[in-house]
Structures are given as C-alpha cells and as structure tokens.
Design a protein that fits this description.
The chain has about 325 residues and is an alpha/beta fold. Helices cover about 35% and strands about 25% of the residues. The chain is built from 12 helices and 15 strands. The radius of gyration is 19 Å and the shape is globular. The C terminus is likely disordered.
Length: about 325
Amino acid sequence: MQAWQVHENGEPSEVMRLEDVERPTPGDGQVLLRVRAANINFPDVLMVRGHYQVRPPLPFTPGVEICGETEDGRRVIANPALPYGGFAEYAVADAAALLPAPESLDDAEAAALHIGYQTGWFGLHRRAHLEAGETLLVHAAAGGVGSAAVQLGKAAGARVIGVVGGAEKAAVARELGCDVVIDRRAQDVVGAVKEATGGRGADVIYDPVGGEAYTQSTKVVAFEGRIVVVGFASGSIPSPALNHALVKNYTILGLHWGLYNTKNPKLVQHCHEQLTDLAARGAIRPLVSERVPLDGAAAAVQRVGDGVTTGRVAVVPQNGATA
C-alpha cells in the first residue's frame, strides 16, 4: 500500500515522503481500517515538526483523524494508532474507540466531525457551560477548530463573535453564521469587541491561538466570563497574570480533549451521540474547504501549518486502496 512516511522531523513539504510499505498488522484489541478520508489537524503539523507532546518513533505516518471502513464494511470514525496514521491507504485503530460515522455526512465531513467538534463540545458545554443568549467569542473562527466552535455556539443559542485574519476568512466566518466578524488585520480587536457588546465583553472566549489572542481575551472577557484555552496555534504560550483574573472576576479553563479518552471514555461516546444528532438535524456540518488526493497530502499539511487554509482539508485516497 501507499503511505506518507516521516523519517526525520521538519517542515511537512520537505520531510513527508509517499512510499510503498507493507500494510500494518493490528495488535491486540486493534482493527485494520481502509482509509476513506483523513482530516488534517494542526497536531499533524506539530508532530511532523517534532513539536508535539506525542512523538511517535521514526519513521511514522501522520494523520490522527479518519473516516475508515472495517473489514465487514462498517463506516467508522477513528483516531489511528500511531505510528500507523491516516495519511495512507490503510491504518489501524483501537477497536473499543471506534465511533459510527453519521449517515448525514460524507466521508470527508465525517472524518472532520471528531477532534475539532469534540473539543468544541467539551470546551463550550462541559467546561464553560455556555448558555443560550450568552456572547461567545471565537478566535481563528474560520479555521478547523474555530469553525466547529462557531457552529456549536450557534446551535446552543449563543451570539457569536468571530475573529479572523483577512477578508477571505471574514467571508467564511459570515457564512458559518457569526453574528459579528472582526478582521484582526484591519480592525482593533479589543475595541471592536467592546463596541459589539456595549462595553460588557464576551461571556465565553474560545482560544485555540494563544499569544496575542489570549492577551486580547483578557481585555474583553465579561464579568464572570470564561476563557477556554484549547491550543497555541500562534506558537506562543502565554503566562496568565492571575491577579488580573482575580480583579476582573473571570475564569481560565484548560481543555485537553485527549484526556477524556482515558479518564472518562463514556463522555466521548455521549458527545459523539450529541454531535451525530446535531448533524442529522443540520445544526452543524463540518466545513471541508478542500478534498485532496493521497499524493497531495504533504502540500496540504504544509498549507495547514502555514495558516492559509479555511475550515478543514481532507485527504481522500483515490480509486480505493491497493495491496
């Protein structure tokens, strides 16, 4: 079969190689899956660069989120067991963690429903307890993680403010349903949020960016507001001033979704059921901006790393899998 291999860490376009390799052999409790679509996540970029907390042994195949097909023909969503990731014709995954792919979504959309939407659901509902009528501010609102949070926020009845970088991403955020869109390249984010909220600020802030975005969040969070920290796509990890959180009476919430897989896997299943229902009702639908063939994966991963994509980019192996 064909699979992308990383023999040394570096930029995806430079170190990812498409090679002919043997199909992986499932271990105890694992299953072999034919990859129908693999969604590109920012952790894939970090893993290739060697900057992620998980460092699979070299060589490895990246790709942490797929829609796959079991040997008996079931369409499932899975997180492949590294080093046999999803940017390949076949991957392996833990049998106990397989989730049914929603019938309302195609393969690429189903692959994109998992990590980003689970993170959004846990962040907004489990951690921040977002309520209908509250104001939700989403940084990087046109990206893969941000777009999921926008849709989930709207589905929950929140008023959503989306912060983006550039006119093209602003248009995407409007199409996603943001009530207010702020282009950080053309507008003062702090001033624009205060104007949009009558000076009150946002009740819940969803931050996958870190760096300057987090600093802005602390300036526009409302009384008893909640800042949900889900990542640091900017590459800069902020150091919160806890005296500021005390004086303004807001909460800083960390969210590491992967921990739920080991700490409380039943909640992951419950979340998937909620997401499947929302998808069936048309309340959410992953924004898949590109579907690329397997041989285009390295370039696509690089684009995600460069921050020039919107929504999700999915790798879709062409013409079925080969031996």
